[in-house]
Design goal:
Helix content is 36%, strand content 17%. The chain contains ten helices and 14 strands. The protein is globular and about 55 Å long.
């Protein structure tokens, strides 16, 4: 099938492009390159550098390329920034997504896969999190994603659009080949920040809060390898065959890992020390978030294959190590 991968030059999108090709599909990438990297894409990929705000251009691409399914990875993801710059996040994560959905309607494209997040749940009332858990976002980023989810529910009832919402827990790791990995500017995710601190590519890691009600006082998260996430995007295709569908899945391992445990594993894998400083809790951070993935396992026949924390960090290190000039000893 012809798949428009919006944000396909970004972290998860670029990994998904490679899996689509391996599965025999034809990915077409749309990315404005505000955060993505053109060089992460394989040679020969059809690429459009365009903004979702240009609805006419997006409609033209959808029609010209005879798109069957749209995958949307182009959301802004920095939780802390979303708190300080909510207008930036609403403009890109809500308004631009609405433009995309309108362009799809105008072009007759009726299958949509949306990258959502466990941040819609906020501080969980019960763990592990099931898809029907209460939603209480703690930040504009999580609220943005929930707003689009709600819109997709309404569209499924009132139009032919079929949507799959995939709620990521903590996407992490790098491609097994070591050719592409996690490269955000600015970087906001724990594992790459900790590796950069260990290799003296940045100052000491900031550890926000060590007084949470968890075994070691630091937040608990569910780390899932980027390649496992991408497999779910292809597995969900069959769920979109009937018009007017809405399906949602939590994509995680169900195994919580603390910030300190991540740091310790990085030190074991790399043989380096991760310097860090304790800082006050950060607004918008939940104490613990980890998934009940049984619905995805049952309905998509999806299983995390490389999402144990050591494998995640080993693949991340394989990629990051190529950029190291003078690591500490």
């Amino acid at each position: 099938m012809n798949i428009l991968v919006v944000g396909g030059a970004g972290y998860i999108g670029s990994h998904c492009v490679r899996q689509l090709i391996e599965a025999g599909h034809h990915p077409i990438v749309l990315d404005n390159l505000s955060y993505g990297h053109r060089e992460t894409l394989p040679p020969g990929i059809t690429f459009y550098q365009e903004n979702l705000g240009n609805k006419e251009a997006v409609s033209t691409i959808l029609s010209k390329e005879r798109i069957d399914i749209v995958m949307h990875f182009a959301g802004y993801i920095n939780v802390g920034e979303s708190i300080h710059k909510p207008l930036k996040y609403y403009k890109n994560n809500v308004t631009a997504t609405i433009n995309l959905l309108e362009a799809m309607q105008e072009s007759g494209v009726s299958k949509f896969i949306f990258s959502s997040t466990c941040a819609i749940y906020g501080n969980a009332e019960q763990l592990p999190l099931k898809e029907d858990a209460s939603t209480q976002p703690l930040n504009p980023y999580g609220q943005n994603k929930l707003d689009i989810e709600n819109l997709l529910r309404y569209l499924a009832k009132t139009s032919s659009l079929s949507s799959a919402v995939l709620r990521y827990f903590n996407a992490s790791g790098a491609h097994i080949s070591g050719q592409i990995g996690e490269d955000h500017t600015p970087e906001s995710h724990l594992i790459p920040l900790a590796i950069k601190a260990a290799t003296e590519q940045r100052e000491a890691l900031s550890l926000f809060g060590n007084d949470y009600p968890t075994p070691d006082g630091t937040c608990l998260r569910d780390y899932v390898h980027v390649d496992d996430l991408c497999r779910a995007h292809i597995a969900v295709f069959d769920k979109l065959e009937t018009t007017g569908q809405f399906v949602d899945y939590n994509l995680g391992t169900g195994t919580p890992t603390s910030v300190k445990e991540v740091i310790q594993t990085i030190e074991q894998v790399t043989g380096l020390i991760v310097p860090y400083v304790i800082k006050p809790r950060r607004a918008g951070d939940a104490t613990a978030l980890y998934a009940d993935n049984s619905k995805a396992v049952r309905e998509l026949n999806w299983q995390p294959q490389c999402s144990d924390i050591k494998t995640i960090i080993q693949t991340a290190w394989n990629w990051h190590a190529k950029t190291v000039s003078s690591p500490n000893n």
